[in-house]
């Protein structure tokens, strides 16, 4: 009987603990902040010294694939002593803790607001903190990017394009804002566009290619660039032999990623119009779909001369990352 009472008490205590955590989550205030903007919580001396310099080098580094330098994230510093109330509700936070503590890096969610991702980096000395930043920068950037993509997708979901024909043909679901329109539906090729202003546009292409189109190895990026050039030349040609191609002067960058729990290649680079003065950044995803013996290709590009383009490419990235394959 005593053993039974002990078990019941433990169950009740655990239940109460779970309820407190649930209640905490329910009553957290809503997070805030512009997309891709980090609140860096650090004492002024830390921010103005070597640690702050390394934080800026890492998180404000130029984003790959843009014609001019634009930072990966915007940043604002918040002194530790005033990090409270509204200031603590930023959606992504980098908190630097220097003191009599072990060198550590933690990533926590919904600590002060919801949704929120907080990276806490600490150590006894500047050297220890900088070492933690170097060791964990990719993990932190990935966590922040995922939070921002999730927030952008939440905003996109408020008003969606009716795109059932494309979804059914390609065997996918995707969330595209209603301000876009399907400009071309040609069998298994779909061209989706959004007008900005003064002939400036954001555009998406969706199609599929057999798995053997893209090899795995040193020539992967070459295969993807060749495939993209063939598609843009044949599917969206201009007048008088004008066509889009990947710009030779800017070597594109390739990364491995995951979309819909499937391996994918991400290519970032610059496109140009052969025979006409137009250019801009693009982002291409080749999603491996072994079940259907294909790569699903989702490609976004921007034409917006004189405008900053990071946030436009980020919107296209967020749209593409909403893809699920049926």
Main CATH class of the largest domain: Alpha Beta
Low-confidence stretches: 6-14, 18-22
The pLDDT mean sits at 92
Strand content: 25-35%
Overall CATH architecture of the largest domain? 3-Layer(aba) Sandwich
Task: Give the termini separation.
Answer: 54 Å
Oligomer classification? single chain
SSE run: HEHHEEEEHHEEEEHEEEEEHE
What is the name of the CATH topology of the largest domain?
Protein Transport Mog1p, Chain A
Q: What is the rounded Rg?
A: 23 Å
Strand tally: 15
Instruction: Give the biggest sheet.
Output: 8 strands, antiparallel
Helix/sheet category: alpha+beta
**Total domains:** 2
- The helicity comes to 25-40%
- Outline, from the CA principal axes? elongated
Report the CATH superfamily of the largest domain: Mog1/PsbP, alpha/beta/alpha sandwich
Please count the helical segments.
Answer: 7
